[in-house]
Specification:
Length: 292
């Protein structure tokens, strides 16, 4: 994926030129009370995490790479498709203990604007503060995630103000019912390694045995560990990642549905059509037509 390739290029340039790590933010759009930024971080295991503070309410969609996110409410390993949640004024730190680089689409909201969105979706009082630190990759976010990534690649069909409001509403409703379990020691490193393998070989043969070998766990223990941290089984995680990639390509590329399906790791277009409809509620052709 081009989104991930740009992260690798940024990390390679940092290594080659000896520049400092950390995030590089590019504002994509902004309005009264909201901002959307494309954030590429080139930090790696050699960099120590340092404490930062959320100036605004933050909902960040991870589009490439992995990193550890820690706040007073808990910690999580974030991977493509997952959502990082931040409360205004709260401290946090991000670390890259297992691999270098990540990329996020960060939606930032001024407190008054965010409070109004929360009231509009029926979330009030103390529930306005996110109790969870993240939301795993879930079906409900797949359409928004694929559209946001298409916008990141330059698709003119994405309206960032509408996207900002939709992302905030979905995150508020979902986070209200989330609780976070502690990550078992060593599990984050194993899952992070596997997520990177999936990301770089999304259209390859990603069997359970291959991924378990990458994690140095038995297939049974890998399955339990992966699902506990990402919220999905490896099969569902890979399928959802391939479908998001396909939806993004349908919106940003003028190519046949069959070619896109094959490039995204689907060997059978009928299976692709069924899976796409189950995830997005419409066929690939109808999705492309609606986004156009």
């Amino acid at each position: 994926m081009r989104i991930a390739a740009e992260v690798e290029q940024a990390v390679a340039e940092r290594v080659r030129h000896g520049t400092d790590g950390g995030p590089r933010a590019r504002v994509l759009a902004s309005g009264e009370g909201w901002t959307v930024t494309d954030v590429i971080c080139t930090s790696g295991p050699q960099d120590r995490p340092f404490e930062e503070s959320h100036d605004y309410y933050s909902i960040a969609l991870v589009t490439a790479g992995t990193f550890q996110y820690r706040a007073s409410r808990g910690e999580a390993l974030l991977s493509p498709g997952s959502i990082m949640l931040g409360n205004a004024g709260q401290c946090f730190e991000c670390g890259h203990e297992h691999a270098a680089g990540d990329r996020c689409l960060a939606f930032l909201y001024a407190p008054r604007f965010f409070e109004q969105v929360a009231a509009d979706v029926g979330v009030r009082g103390r529930s306005l503060e996110f109790d969870a630190v993240s939301i795993p990759s879930v079906k409900e976010f797949s359409p928004l995630a694929s559209q946001a990534c298409a916008g990141l690649l330059g698709a003119s069909t994405v309206d960032w103000q509408e996207m900002s409001l939709s992302i905030a509403g979905h995150a508020l409703r979902m986070a209200a019912g989330l609780t976070m379990d502690a990550i078992p020691p060593g599990a984050a490193e194993r899952v992070s390694r596997v997520v990177r393998v999936i990301e770089h070989d999304l259209d390859g043969e990603l069997t359970l045995d291959r991924l378990a070998n990458e994690s140095h766990l038995s297939a049974f223990h890998f399955l339990r560990t992966f699902e506990r941290i990402t919220g999905l089984t490896p099969h569902r995680y890979i399928l959802r990642a391939r479908l998001r990639d396909a939806a993004m390509r349908l919106e940003s590329e003028d190519r046949r549905v069959l070619d896109i399906a094959l490039d995204c790791g689907f060997g059978d277009v009928s299976n692709f059509n069924r899976a796409f409809r189950a995830e997005f509620g419409v066929s690939p052709r109808a999705y492309r037509k609606a986004r156009a």
